[in-house]
Protein backbone atom coordinates (compact mmCIF):
# COMPACT_ATOMS: atom_id res chain seq x y z
CA UNK A 1 0.00 0.00 0.00
CA UNK A 2 1.63 3.22 -1.20
CA UNK A 3 -0.60 5.60 0.78
CA UNK A 4 -0.99 5.91 4.52
CA UNK A 5 -3.31 3.16 5.80
CA UNK A 6 -6.59 4.41 7.23
CA UNK A 7 -9.04 3.12 9.78
CA UNK A 8 -11.28 1.84 6.98
CA UNK A 9 -8.40 -0.22 5.56
CA UNK A 10 -8.02 -1.96 8.90
CA UNK A 11 -11.76 -2.57 9.07
CA UNK A 12 -11.81 -4.04 5.53
CA UNK A 13 -8.79 -6.27 6.21
CA UNK A 14 -10.22 -7.55 9.50
CA UNK A 15 -13.75 -7.89 8.09
CA UNK A 16 -15.31 -5.69 10.78
CA UNK A 17 -16.79 -2.22 11.05
CA UNK A 18 -14.86 1.01 11.63
CA UNK A 19 -16.58 1.29 15.01
CA UNK A 20 -15.29 -2.13 16.03
CA UNK A 21 -11.74 -1.20 15.05
CA UNK A 22 -12.02 2.01 17.08
CA UNK A 23 -13.30 0.11 20.11
CA UNK A 24 -10.43 -2.38 19.93
CA UNK A 25 -7.81 0.36 19.56
CA UNK A 26 -9.25 2.26 22.53
CA UNK A 27 -9.82 -0.91 24.58
CA UNK A 28 -13.53 -0.25 24.86
CA UNK A 29 -16.75 -2.09 24.18
CA UNK A 30 -17.71 -5.73 24.50
CA UNK A 31 -15.63 -7.25 21.72
CA UNK A 32 -14.82 -10.96 21.56
CA UNK A 33 -11.18 -11.96 22.02
CA UNK A 34 -11.19 -13.56 18.56
CA UNK A 35 -12.29 -10.27 16.94
CA UNK A 36 -9.72 -8.30 18.94
CA UNK A 37 -6.93 -10.56 17.71
CA UNK A 38 -8.17 -10.26 14.11
CA UNK A 39 -8.18 -6.46 14.31
CA UNK A 40 -4.73 -6.34 15.92
CA UNK A 41 -3.32 -8.62 13.21
CA UNK A 42 -4.74 -6.28 10.56
CA UNK A 43 -3.24 -3.24 12.33
CA UNK A 44 0.17 -4.91 12.42
CA UNK A 45 0.03 -6.17 8.84
CA UNK A 46 -0.93 -2.74 7.45
CA UNK A 47 1.37 -0.75 9.74
CA UNK A 48 -1.60 1.36 10.79
CA UNK A 49 -0.88 4.24 13.19
CA UNK A 50 -3.86 6.19 14.60
CA UNK A 51 -4.02 9.89 13.74
CA UNK A 52 -4.02 11.28 17.28
CA UNK A 53 -4.47 14.88 16.18
CA UNK A 54 -7.58 14.05 14.21
CA UNK A 55 -8.88 12.13 17.22
CA UNK A 56 -8.11 15.12 19.45
CA UNK A 57 -10.06 17.43 17.15
CA UNK A 58 -13.06 15.09 17.25
CA UNK A 59 -12.99 14.58 21.01
CA UNK A 60 -11.78 18.03 22.03
CA UNK A 61 -9.09 16.35 24.16
CA UNK A 62 -5.40 16.76 23.31
CA UNK A 63 -3.17 13.87 24.40
CA UNK A 64 0.17 15.57 23.74
CA UNK A 65 2.19 17.23 26.50
CA UNK A 66 5.18 19.55 26.12
CA UNK A 67 8.17 20.02 28.42
CA UNK A 68 10.32 23.16 28.23
CA UNK A 69 13.44 22.77 30.35
CA UNK A 70 17.02 24.00 30.28
CA UNK A 71 20.08 21.75 30.07
CA UNK A 72 18.79 18.46 28.67
CA UNK A 73 22.32 17.05 28.93
CA UNK A 74 22.21 17.37 32.73
CA UNK A 75 21.39 13.90 34.15
CA UNK A 76 19.13 15.48 36.79
CA UNK A 77 16.91 16.94 34.05
CA UNK A 78 17.03 13.72 32.05
CA UNK A 79 15.85 11.72 35.05
CA UNK A 80 13.05 14.21 35.82
CA UNK A 81 11.88 13.93 32.19
CA UNK A 82 12.04 10.14 32.42
CA UNK A 83 9.77 10.21 35.48
CA UNK A 84 7.33 12.59 33.76
CA UNK A 85 7.25 10.52 30.57
CA UNK A 86 6.78 7.16 32.30
CA UNK A 87 3.85 8.49 34.33
CA UNK A 88 2.09 10.36 31.51
CA UNK A 89 2.49 7.59 28.94
CA UNK A 90 0.68 5.15 31.24
CA UNK A 91 -2.25 7.58 30.98
CA UNK A 92 -2.10 7.66 27.18
CA UNK A 93 -0.18 10.92 26.70
CA UNK A 94 2.64 11.60 24.25
CA UNK A 95 5.45 13.74 25.70
CA UNK A 96 7.92 15.90 23.78
CA UNK A 97 10.72 18.08 25.17
CA UNK A 98 12.45 21.28 24.07
CA UNK A 99 15.59 22.82 25.61
CA UNK A 100 15.46 26.57 26.25
CA UNK A 101 19.18 26.64 27.13
CA UNK A 102 18.16 29.21 29.77
CA UNK A 103 17.65 31.77 27.00
CA UNK A 104 14.37 33.75 27.32
CA UNK A 105 14.09 34.39 23.56
CA UNK A 106 14.69 30.75 22.70
CA UNK A 107 12.26 29.80 25.44
CA UNK A 108 9.58 32.01 23.87
CA UNK A 109 10.10 30.22 20.55
CA UNK A 110 9.77 26.88 22.38
CA UNK A 111 6.50 27.97 23.98
CA UNK A 112 5.09 29.28 20.70
CA UNK A 113 6.05 26.02 18.97
CA UNK A 114 4.10 24.00 21.54
CA UNK A 115 1.11 26.36 21.36
CA UNK A 116 1.19 26.20 17.55
CA UNK A 117 1.17 22.41 17.62
CA UNK A 118 -1.74 22.42 20.08
CA UNK A 119 -0.15 20.77 23.10
CA UNK A 120 -2.70 19.84 25.73
CA UNK A 121 -0.50 20.78 28.69
CA UNK A 122 2.96 22.00 29.64
CA UNK A 123 5.64 21.29 32.23
CA UNK A 124 8.00 24.24 32.37
CA UNK A 125 11.26 25.26 34.08
CA UNK A 126 11.29 29.03 33.41
CA UNK A 127 14.53 30.58 32.17
CA UNK A 128 16.25 32.91 34.65
CA UNK A 129 15.23 36.14 32.88
CA UNK A 130 11.70 35.05 31.93
CA UNK A 131 9.36 38.00 31.37
CA UNK A 132 5.66 38.43 32.07
CA UNK A 133 5.05 38.09 28.30
CA UNK A 134 5.76 34.35 28.45
CA UNK A 135 3.24 33.87 31.25
CA UNK A 136 0.63 36.01 29.47
CA UNK A 137 1.08 33.98 26.29
CA UNK A 138 0.33 30.70 28.08
CA UNK A 139 -2.63 32.22 29.93
CA UNK A 140 -4.11 33.67 26.72
CA UNK A 141 -4.09 30.25 25.10
CA UNK A 142 -5.32 28.47 28.21
CA UNK A 143 -2.47 25.96 28.37
CA UNK A 144 -2.61 23.93 31.61
CA UNK A 145 0.88 24.46 33.06
CA UNK A 146 3.00 23.17 35.94
CA UNK A 147 6.29 24.93 36.71
CA UNK A 148 9.31 23.34 38.37
CA UNK A 149 12.22 24.72 40.45
CA UNK A 150 11.83 28.37 39.41
CA UNK A 151 8.76 30.58 39.69
CA UNK A 152 7.77 32.63 36.63
CA UNK A 153 7.40 36.42 37.15
CA UNK A 154 3.69 35.97 37.91
CA UNK A 155 3.02 32.88 40.01
CA UNK A 156 -0.29 31.85 38.45
CA UNK A 157 0.46 28.18 37.69
CA UNK A 158 0.76 25.00 39.70
CA UNK A 159 4.32 24.74 40.99
CA UNK A 160 6.74 22.26 42.57
CA UNK A 161 9.82 23.68 44.23
CA UNK A 162 12.66 22.26 46.34
CA UNK A 163 13.49 23.27 49.90
CA UNK A 164 16.92 24.45 48.80
CA UNK A 165 17.86 26.57 51.79
CA UNK A 166 17.01 23.89 54.33
CA UNK A 167 18.89 21.29 52.28
CA UNK A 168 22.20 23.14 52.19
CA UNK A 169 21.84 23.95 55.88
CA UNK A 170 21.58 20.20 56.49
CA UNK A 171 24.59 19.47 54.28
CA UNK A 172 26.71 22.14 55.97
CA UNK A 173 25.67 20.98 59.45
CA UNK A 174 26.57 17.38 58.61
CA UNK A 175 30.07 18.41 57.51
CA UNK A 176 30.50 20.57 60.61
CA UNK A 177 29.52 17.64 62.82
CA UNK A 178 32.27 15.63 61.13
CA UNK A 179 34.63 18.34 62.51
CA UNK A 180 35.14 20.25 59.27
CA UNK A 181 35.72 23.96 59.85
CA UNK A 182 36.83 25.14 56.41
CA UNK A 183 33.79 24.49 54.25
CA UNK A 184 33.13 26.08 50.84
CA UNK A 185 30.00 26.35 48.72
CA UNK A 186 30.93 25.05 45.27
CA UNK A 187 29.10 25.38 41.95
CA UNK A 188 26.63 27.48 40.03
CA UNK A 189 27.70 30.22 37.67
CA UNK A 190 25.07 32.94 37.97
CA UNK A 191 24.01 35.14 40.87
CA UNK A 192 20.62 35.63 39.14
CA UNK A 193 19.67 31.98 39.66
CA UNK A 194 17.07 31.87 42.46
CA UNK A 195 17.84 28.21 43.17
CA UNK A 196 21.56 28.93 43.64
CA UNK A 197 20.80 31.95 45.80
CA UNK A 198 18.63 29.85 48.09
CA UNK A 199 21.29 27.16 48.39
CA UNK A 200 24.01 29.69 49.15
CA UNK A 201 21.75 31.28 51.77
CA UNK A 202 21.38 27.93 53.54
CA UNK A 203 25.14 27.39 53.52
CA UNK A 204 25.77 30.90 54.90
CA UNK A 205 23.05 30.50 57.56
CA UNK A 206 24.65 27.36 58.95
CA UNK A 207 28.20 28.66 58.76
CA UNK A 208 27.18 31.73 60.74
CA UNK A 209 25.09 29.76 63.21
CA UNK A 210 28.09 27.59 64.03
CA UNK A 211 30.55 30.48 63.87
CA UNK A 212 32.56 28.79 61.11
CA UNK A 213 34.52 30.51 58.41
CA UNK A 214 35.66 32.40 56.60
CA UNK A 215 33.01 31.47 54.04
CA UNK A 216 34.04 30.72 50.46
CA UNK A 217 31.58 30.71 47.54
CA UNK A 218 33.22 29.35 44.39
CA UNK A 219 31.41 29.42 41.01
CA UNK A 220 31.46 26.68 38.40
CA UNK A 221 29.55 25.65 35.32
CA UNK A 222 27.11 22.78 35.77
CA UNK A 223 29.00 19.98 33.98
CA UNK A 224 31.53 17.53 35.37
CA UNK A 225 34.33 18.93 33.23
CA UNK A 226 33.58 22.47 34.41
CA UNK A 227 33.42 21.24 37.99
CA UNK A 228 36.79 19.54 37.59
CA UNK A 229 38.48 22.71 36.31
CA UNK A 230 36.83 24.94 38.93
CA UNK A 231 37.76 22.57 41.77
CA UNK A 232 41.42 22.61 40.73
CA UNK A 233 41.31 26.41 40.74
CA UNK A 234 39.61 26.41 44.15
CA UNK A 235 42.28 24.10 45.57
CA UNK A 236 45.03 26.37 44.32
CA UNK A 237 43.38 29.46 45.82
CA UNK A 238 42.18 27.87 49.08
CA UNK A 239 44.23 24.79 50.02
CA UNK A 240 42.83 25.06 53.55
CA UNK A 241 39.33 23.98 52.41
CA UNK A 242 38.50 20.46 53.62
CA UNK A 243 34.85 20.15 52.55
CA UNK A 244 32.49 21.24 49.77
CA UNK A 245 28.75 21.79 49.77
CA UNK A 246 27.91 21.56 46.07
CA UNK A 247 25.19 23.12 43.96
CA UNK A 248 24.54 19.85 42.11
CA UNK A 249 25.77 16.29 41.65
CA UNK A 250 27.55 17.00 38.37
CA UNK A 251 29.86 19.67 39.79
CA UNK A 252 30.36 17.49 42.88
CA UNK A 253 31.47 14.59 40.69
CA UNK A 254 33.74 16.98 38.79
CA UNK A 255 35.29 18.05 42.09
CA UNK A 256 35.80 14.40 42.98
CA UNK A 257 37.66 13.86 39.70
CA UNK A 258 39.78 16.91 40.48
CA UNK A 259 40.71 15.33 43.81
CA UNK A 260 41.89 12.19 42.04
CA UNK A 261 43.90 14.24 39.57
CA UNK A 262 45.55 16.21 42.40
CA UNK A 263 46.32 13.13 44.47
CA UNK A 264 43.73 14.03 47.12
CA UNK A 265 41.72 11.25 48.75
CA UNK A 266 38.05 12.23 48.52
CA UNK A 267 36.27 11.24 51.71
CA UNK A 268 39.39 11.81 53.81
CA UNK A 269 41.44 14.78 52.58
CA UNK A 270 38.40 16.42 50.98
CA UNK A 271 34.74 15.73 51.75
CA UNK A 272 32.13 16.45 49.08
CA UNK A 273 28.33 16.66 49.34
CA UNK A 274 26.31 16.84 46.12
CA UNK A 275 22.70 17.83 45.47
CA UNK A 276 20.08 15.85 43.47
CA UNK A 277 20.95 12.14 43.89
CA UNK A 278 21.19 11.18 40.23
CA UNK A 279 21.92 7.55 39.36
CA UNK A 280 25.55 8.43 38.65
CA UNK A 281 26.02 9.71 42.20
CA UNK A 282 25.41 6.25 43.64
CA UNK A 283 27.75 4.38 41.28
CA UNK A 284 30.63 6.89 41.21
CA UNK A 285 34.01 6.08 42.77
CA UNK A 286 33.84 7.11 45.53
CA UNK A 287 30.05 6.99 45.77
CA UNK A 288 28.74 10.51 46.33
CA UNK A 289 27.14 11.73 49.53
CA UNK A 290 24.31 13.97 48.39
CA UNK A 291 21.11 15.78 49.22
CA UNK A 292 18.55 13.56 47.53
CA UNK A 293 15.41 14.85 45.83
CA UNK A 294 14.92 11.63 43.78
CA UNK A 295 14.60 13.23 40.30
CA UNK A 296 12.55 10.42 38.76
CA UNK A 297 10.08 10.56 41.65
CA UNK A 298 10.01 14.34 41.26
CA UNK A 299 9.10 13.84 37.59
CA UNK A 300 6.22 11.55 38.54
CA UNK A 301 4.94 14.17 40.99
CA UNK A 302 5.01 16.77 38.22
CA UNK A 303 3.06 14.45 35.93
CA UNK A 304 0.49 13.74 38.65
CA UNK A 305 0.01 17.46 39.28
CA UNK A 306 -0.51 18.11 35.57
CA UNK A 307 -3.00 15.22 35.30
CA UNK A 308 -4.98 16.73 38.17
CA UNK A 309 -4.95 20.13 36.42
CA UNK A 310 -6.12 18.57 33.13
CA UNK A 311 -8.92 16.77 34.98
CA UNK A 312 -10.14 19.92 36.74
CA UNK A 313 -8.90 23.17 35.09
CA UNK A 314 -10.94 25.27 37.52
CA UNK A 315 -8.95 24.32 40.62
CA UNK A 316 -6.98 27.13 42.28
CA UNK A 317 -3.20 26.94 41.65
CA UNK A 318 -1.43 24.37 43.81
CA UNK A 319 2.05 25.05 45.19
CA UNK A 320 4.21 22.50 46.94
CA UNK A 321 7.84 21.97 47.87
CA UNK A 322 9.95 18.82 48.02
CA UNK A 323 12.39 18.31 50.88
CA UNK A 324 15.88 16.91 50.30
CA UNK A 325 17.18 13.98 52.33
CA UNK A 326 20.84 13.52 53.21
CA UNK A 327 22.17 10.28 51.71
CA UNK A 328 25.57 9.44 53.18
CA UNK A 329 28.04 7.55 51.00
CA UNK A 330 31.83 7.41 50.60
CA UNK A 331 32.71 10.96 49.53
CA UNK A 332 32.52 12.34 53.07
CA UNK A 333 34.32 11.66 56.32
CA UNK A 334 36.13 13.34 59.18
CA UNK A 335 39.11 15.54 58.22
CA UNK A 336 42.37 13.60 57.96
Task: Give a description of the structure.
- The chain has 336 residues and is of the alpha/beta class.
- The chain has 3 domains: 44 residues, lambda repressor-like DNA-binding domains (434 Repressor (Amino-terminal Domain), Orthogonal Bundle), CATH 1.10.260; 130 residues, Response regulator (Rossmann fold, 3-Layer(aba) Sandwich), CATH 3.40.50; 130 residues, 3-Layer(aba) Sandwich (Rossmann fold), CATH 3.40.50.2300.
- The protein contains 13 helices and 12 strands.
- Strands 2-1-3-4-5-11 form a 6-stranded parallel β-sheet, with helices on both faces. Strands 7-6-8-9-10-12 form a 6-stranded mixed β-sheet, with helices on both faces.
- The N and C termini lie far apart (73 Å).
- The model has no long low-confidence stretch (mean pLDDT 92).
Distance between the termini: 73 Å
**The named CATH superfamily of the largest domain:** Response regulator
The general outline is elongated
Percent range for β-strand residues? 15-25%
Mean pLDDT: 92
Largest sheet: 6 strands, parallel
Main structural class: alpha/beta
Spell the H/E element sequence: HHHHEHEHEHEEHEHEHEHEHEHEE
CATH architecture of the largest domain: 3-Layer(aba) Sandwich
Number of helices: 13
Which residues form runs of ≥5 with pLDDT under 50?
A: none
What is the CATH third-level topology name of the largest domain? Rossmann fold
Proportion of helical residues:
40-55%
Amino acid sequence: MSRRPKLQDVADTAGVSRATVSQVLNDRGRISEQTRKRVKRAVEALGYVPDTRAASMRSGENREIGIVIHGLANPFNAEVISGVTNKLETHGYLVSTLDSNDDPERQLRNLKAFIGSSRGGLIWVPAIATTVDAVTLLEMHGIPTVTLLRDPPVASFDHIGIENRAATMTATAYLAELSHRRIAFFGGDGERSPVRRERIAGYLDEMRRRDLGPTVIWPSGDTKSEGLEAAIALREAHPEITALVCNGDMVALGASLAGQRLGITVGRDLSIVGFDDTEEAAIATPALTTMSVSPRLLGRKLARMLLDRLKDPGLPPVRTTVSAKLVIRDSTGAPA
